[in-house]
Amino acid sequence: MSAQPAYPSGALRVHALRALARGPKLIVLGAVHGNETCGTRAIERVLAEFDAGAWSLARGSVTFVPVTNPLAYQRNQRAGERNLNRNLRPNDNPLDNEDRIANVLCPLLAEHDVLLDLHSYQSPGEPFALIGPPDNHGSLEPFAHAAAEEALALRLGPRRIVEGWLETYAAGVANRLRRLGAQLSARAQLLNTDASYGIGTTEYMRSRGGYAVTLECGRHTDPQADEVAYRAIRATLAHLGLVDEPAPAARADYELLCLNEVSDRLHADDRLVREWSSFQPLRAGETIAQRADGAELRAPDDGFIVFPNPNALPGNEWFYFARRSARRLRAQGAAR
Fold first, then answer.
1. Which pTM value belongs to this model?
2. Using an 8 Å Cβ cutoff, are 235 and 155 in contact?
3. Which of 8, 125, 213, 297 is most buried, by the most CB atoms less than 10 A from its CB?
4. Which CATH superfamily is domain 15-253 in?
5. Where are the domains of the chain?
6. Which run of H or E residues covers position 331?
7. Distance of alpha carbon 199 from alpha carbon 88, whole angstroms
8. CB 39 within 8 A of CB 31
9. Taking every pair of C-alpha atoms in the chain, what is the biggest distance, in angstroms?
10. How far apart are CA 322 and CA 237, in angstroms?
């Protein structure tokens, strides 16, 4: 058996395949958060299959980054020095590990048309995909490739799809600013209250003219998460026509939810009232959490809890609230 690849913290290991025929340019990321390794294992498996001749790139190109945050990966934790998937942008004066990664990763993303970013999450729940907004010319996240993004999301496997990330996060940042005011001092607080803090890999990709889907493959500890990530890579390669494999069918039984609100943990003694699972249904008025001072946080309407994190650090997002979306997803969209 061959040794496991090394992922030293001073560099990004990037694997690039370029076909001789033209086609879309895909990039696949794993371990943007260092303790989310399903994408890493899936990418390693796909690379081994390419090396063994089980796959052949027919057109276009694909770039794999098995470990996007090597320092966090070495430490088996979410971040090296801060969250790489927030406030992602090039920085002329890099101050931390994640700034330095961004200076390599952002130009790499900009070279591609499509991004598949593979993640896992803390709480129990089933896999789901995160997509961007409908086409728009707004100031927050202008976008022109929603149909292609929807078509890809419908072919990755999971039935549940979620929208509304950046708009909801921007509202959460505004709430932080109102709450903290003149108390801002530490770099973590300054980043948390930056209007660009909600921008991660997919948002940056859209800002460069591409499109992107985040796939949350399951709980960190779920052994099936690796398989979900692997199947999603295969489906993406086939859907984009990069390999001569049958294109996967789009799911017709999808469930689309829209994030509406984010609640921060303010104190170490703030607690969730139970072990919630992502997308667990909530009834209007149902108690979700209790503050250190005894105040209760209740569901504003019938909906769902998303990304509940009992270990969230004070000052960071704790859980999200989502409602069903009326948006209709399209199964057909140009791959670029």
1. 0.91
2. yes
3. 213
4. Zn peptidases (3.40.630.10)
5. 15-253, 258-324
6. none
7. 6
8. yes
9. 64
10. 31
Give ∠ CA 101-106-112 in degrees, rounded to 5: 135
Q: Give the SS3 label for residue 262.
A: strand
Query: Is 59 in contact with 245 (CB distance < 8 Å)?
Result: no
Task: Please provide the DSSP assignment of 137-200 as one string.
Answer: --SS--BS-HHHHHHHHTTSS-SEEEE-HHHHHHHHHHHHHHHHGGG--SHHHHHHTSTTTT--
Q: Cα 142 from chain centroid? A: 19
Place of tokens 């090039």: 90
DSSP assignment of 210-243: -EEEEEEEEETT-TTHHHHHHHHHHHHHHHTTSS
Q: pLDDT 10s per residue in the chain (336 long)?
A: 456 788 999 999 999 999 999 999 999 999 999 999 999 999 999 999 999 999 999 999 999 999 999 999 999 999 999 999 999 999 999 999 999 999 999 999 999 999 999 999 887 789 999 999 999 999 889 999 999 999 999 999 999 999 998 888 888 777 777 776 545 445 444 455 565 678 999 999 999 999 999 999 999 989 899 999 999 999 999 999 999 999 999 999 999 999 999 999 999 999 999 999 989 999 999 999 999 999 999 999 999 999 899 988 888 889 999 999 999 999 987 666
> What's the alpha-carbon Rg for the chain, to the nearest Å?
20
Element (H, E) at 168: helix 165-180
Structure tokens at 334: 């140009």
Cα–Cα distance, 333 to 135 (Å, whole number): 13
